[in-house]
Amino acid sequence: MEAVVEAIDLERRYGETVALAGASMTVERGEVFGLIGPNGAGKTTLVRALTGTTEPDAGSARVLGTKPNAVDRDRLGVLPQDFSPPDRLTARELIDYYAGLYDDARDPDDVLAAVGLADADDTWYENLSGGQQRRACVGSILVNDPDVLFLDEPTTGIDPAGRRTIWTLVEELAAGGTTVVLTTHDMAEAEHLADRVGLLAEGQIVAHGSPDELVAEHGGSSRLTVETTAGADAFGDLEYPVEQAAPSHRSTRMDTVVVRGVMPAEISTVVDYLEARDLEYTGLTWAEPDLEDVYLELADDAERDRTANTEDRTATTTLNVGETA
């Protein structure tokens, strides 16, 4: 099957800053491809290269069988991260305006209903909530019923109910054959929506695959989080690996440890260990690895490689200077 979206060894520099350093990816028809990665990894630059708004310095890109800047715009929908419509247009006027740009546009009423704004259609954009504004933006790129959608952080600022509305909409579009490329910092969003995920780091896609494949390969073992003032050293003779937990989205507490590789039926072993040693604890939480674990593992690896390469270059420069002197 021919790829609908394809990037081959894309490179892009802005002065001394390397935004893309050989990024490659393919997306098939009806597939949802999620791009994840830290800020500055090159996600937005990659999307711009694929939509024809940025010309790469090297490599090639094709969308719907042609160069991105030659694609029929009626077949493309692009939602930039910083899209901001006029404040004094109502939600309906905004959708009507974009519908008027196409010969065969969707019914604005259908679009408003699809993004959950049917009851706020006469509200000025500036008076919509942040989440409603983002829904209106999503609606504005759906009026032409595009074959390919590029969504850069589509649910930023949207409340949980609104996020679910957008997720359902993306799923329905993909089921109907629309190809979707989305960037996100929300690992739950990537795990829920994406058929495949690509992790972009230092301008390259360092890993890609289905969420399940990535978790199986890079996610590590299950974890039992123990809320306790006892440090990891207090678990020295426990049969499972134990580490001090750092704050994350799951917990902002510093007084927690993580016990690795514990299965649900084995939790009682850890409880018995705590009680036998009078180690006080206030909670236990068991979880399987997920896409956030993959992200943290691979992003950390990329950062370690970047730091090592920087140190190597610094050492080489210092040596050369010394030799010259």
Automatic annotation (TrEMBL):
Residues 304-314 have a biased composition (Basic and acidic residues). The keyword Transmembrane helix does not apply. Pfam families: ABC_tran. Residues 5-227 form the ABC transporter domain. Keywords: ATP-binding, Nucleotide-binding, Transport. The keyword Transport applies. Residues 304-325 are annotated as: Disordered. One of its GO terms (molecular function) is ATP hydrolysis activity. InterPro entries: AAA+_ATPase, ABC_transporter-like_ATP-bd, ABC_transporter-like_CS, ABC_transporter_ATP-binding, P-loop_NTPase. Belongs to the ABC transporter superfamily. This is ABC transporter ATP-binding protein. It comes from Natronobacterium gregoryi (strain ATCC 43098 / DSM 3393 / CCM 3738 / CIP 104747 / IAM 13177 / JCM 8860 / NBRC 102187 / NCIMB 2189 / SP2).
